[in-house]
Amino acid sequence: MLGNQLNAAEARKRKRALAGGEAGTYVELRVTAPTLRHSSFKCSSAVGVIKGMRRRCFDVAGAYLQGTQITRTVYVRAPPDCREYDERGVEFVWLLLRPLYGEPDAGRVWYNTFAHHMIEIEGWNRSDYDSCIFTKVFDGGAEMFLNLYVDDGCTWDSDAAIGDAFYDRLAKAFSITTSSGDFYLGMDIIQTDVRFITLTSETYIRGLCARELSKPISAYTREWSTPGNAKLMEHYEEAFMLHATPPAELGTKFRSIVGGMAWVGPTTRPDVLHRVGILARAYTFATEQLLEDAYECLVYLGQTAHLGVSFSANAPDAAALKWASDSDWAIRRSTTGTADMLAGGPVHASSRRQDCTAGSTTEAEIIAASSASNEITHFRGLCFDLRMEQLLPTECDIDNSACVNVAEDYASSNRTRHIARRHMRVREATHRGIMRVRLVASADNIADFFTKVLEKFLFQKHRRVIMNLVARAGGRVGQVVAAYAGRG
């Protein structure tokens, strides 16, 4: 028995060695390929409209079949309708020069092939903060950057002639087709001017409503001005205390609806991030009340499917990253809410449960602010790669004075010693000049949008600013946003 186990282990080791290395050398077969983050694409879009760059999109036909950067040797038997044996009756074995669809590493081979072409042949730089973003500055100062999601690409260029020449070279290297770019990463893109762009999930939301709702969205006569009623937290707490496994049909329906809505929040609909996040916590103990809350949220999305996030070059301080951070304080785990604004719109927003129980309101706020500091570091680096360097510390709005004091002052007291050092990253980022915390009133902190169930007036007030709806409506976005932020 022991001998068989050793032989099996040796066989696995040899198999891994043959995957791409010298004989007898253990080499792990890496099969996953990176994909573009939606927040990275939104950041690229914001930078693109600020600089007034032209956007174009392309698709690579049969991308996996065009991969050439193979790191292992693969032999296969002859496919059907091909000669299988030679004159001696020996079976033919084919050596693959390119991967096939279905191979575990086909996606990675394709990505490595494209990255090799962009870096080694075209001379582009790959971002250290998102490996699916490539940038290049040409002679004369013209610049381009490219977003890649598997076989779908989107480029921004400041010189049409240089951009067209790049596409000509790309078409010779790979089989590509250009597109209008009205749909990318599952988002509908509305752009009639190089200085303004709107991203929505209208197509996806309407499909989700048609699948999950029993009647057309137009048949719902009540207009939902918020994603649902104000008793969501009460319903969640009751379900949590009961913690009963729901009936199979109810649980399946609940997970289908909430899982479907979970995609739109981080992409184009930050107005449902908090509500969907709370519903998602009840996956295993859903109730009839929570299912009704999920239906109300879906109807709200269907009635406002045309809404999305907009980025405008005319927004005040459009080129400066601006953050807001907030937290509620719960008996168990609190909720962290953050928002990153660039070009008047959110390139990143989050509403997530904290990974520990906070011992005080201040600790919950510090945990949220430290989470924001991590994201600030990431997006400052991404903006640097996109040639929009943030020269000043990134301003982060916080509505807790104790949190601001802890971030700005390297001191310790008996009131803060219960806070773990790993949650003090906001203090480190502040003293390194990466960010600057700013105390604001709770009613003026847009991150409240992601931590609490807000009443109608405050919800729509924050939604109008966070999603940049004033700009989309053609209003005087600069004055409105500046006045709202207390800077006008």
Topology:
Layout: H1 2-18, H2 38-50, E1 54-60, E2 75-77, E3 93-95, H3 106-121, E4 125-126, E5 133-137, E6 143-149, E7 152-157, H4 160-173, E8 176-179, E9 183-184, E10 187-193, E11 196-200, H5 202-212, H6 232-242, H7 248-261, H8 264-267, H9 273-280, H10 288-303, E12 308-312, E13 322-327, E14 335-342, E15 345-353, H11 361-385, E16 394-398, H12 401-408, H13 425-431, E17 435-439, H14 456-466, H15 469-472, H16 477-484
Parallel strand pairs: 13-16, 16-17
Antiparallel strand pairs: 1-7, 1-8, 2-3, 4-5, 5-6, 6-7, 9-10, 10-11, 11-12, 13-14, 14-15
Describe this structure in words.
The relative contact order is 0.10. This protein is an alpha+beta fold and 488 residues long. It has three domains: 38-66 and 105-185, Double Stranded RNA Binding Domain (2-Layer Sandwich), CATH 3.30.160; 202-303, no CATH class; 308-484, Ribonuclease H-like superfamily/Ribonuclease H (Nucleotidyltransferase, domain 5, 2-Layer Sandwich). Helix 5 (202-212) packs across helix 10 (288-303), helix 11 crosses helix 12 and helix 11 (361-385) crosses helix 13 (425-431). The N and C termini lie far apart (79 Å). Helices cover 38% and strands 18% of the residues. It has helices at residues 2-18, 38-50, 106-121, 160-173, 202-212, 232-242, 248-261, 264-267, 273-280, 288-303, 361-385, 401-408, 425-431, 456-466, 469-472, 477-484, and strands spanning 54-60, 75-77, 93-95, 125-126, 133-137, 143-149, 152-157, 176-179, 183-184, 187-193, 196-200, 308-312, 322-327, 335-342, 345-353, 394-398, 435-439. Mean pLDDT is 86; it is low at 1-6, 14-27 and 474-488. Strands 4-5-6-7-1-8 form a six-stranded antiparallel beta sheet, sandwiched between helices. Strands 15-14-13-16-17 form a five-stranded mixed beta sheet.
